[in-house]
Amino acid sequence: xxxxxxxxxxxxxxxxxxxxxxxxxxxxxxxxxxxxxxxxxxxxxxxxxxxxxxxxxxxxxxxxxxxxxxxxxxxxxxxxxxxxxxxxxxxxxxxxxxxxxxxxxxxxxxxxxxxxxxxxxxxxxxxxxxxxxxxxxxxxxxxxxxxxxxxxxxxxxxxxxxxxxxxxxxxxxxxxxxxxxxxxxxxxxxxxxxxxxxxxxxxxxxxxxxxxxxxxxxxxxxxxxxxxxxxxxxxxxxxxxxxxxxxxxxxxxxxxxxxx
Length: 260
Hints:
By secondary structure, this protein is α/β, with parallel strands linked by helices. The protein has 10 helices and 6 strands; from the N terminus they run βααααααβαβαβαββα. It is globular and about 50 Å long.
């Protein structure tokens, strides 16, 4: 049976219907994971696969990337195709002796998140212990009513992750979040594209995306360029979320959302 994400304040009164419910991704959304954490996770995943499956490093790298692209998370491919312990995998590859020195985020992030109206929920493909450790390091764990991590996305004995549609419907139903009130803030465009089908608001945050390397002397385009049709707003900073609400804009296409 999947674990149930526990709200931090179970006696807390529910906001009135129509209030926004922010679904925040964690890595490269609330903090700059590409700076140090993502490289460390990738290296740890590759080492784990080499050891667990007795394959060469090149094959382990190939499986890591292939499963992430196909299933949304490397773990899902490993759990489906190989005899590994998923919980051990999550623990090993998300354990960092120097987490405080690896976490970078926008200045004043706690103030920015606290100023947003409505409820806030973390929705991450990372494990719960890691997510809560990062949130604690950022000083913002108390601002979220619950953390929905990959352990909570399981159903019928199977592992699921973003951008699984049925998983998100179930998560929102359990949290009593109407689809029309949900706004997903996420750095991964494929997740936003898939979840836009449900009618939720979509915000693509690009400020922490890695800068592409130059090719043959040419300047690579900046990450997060363009305005995909499934994105209601494209922002570089969390500051833009508050500014949008001060102007009376809720980023739902059904409510006439705009882009920046």
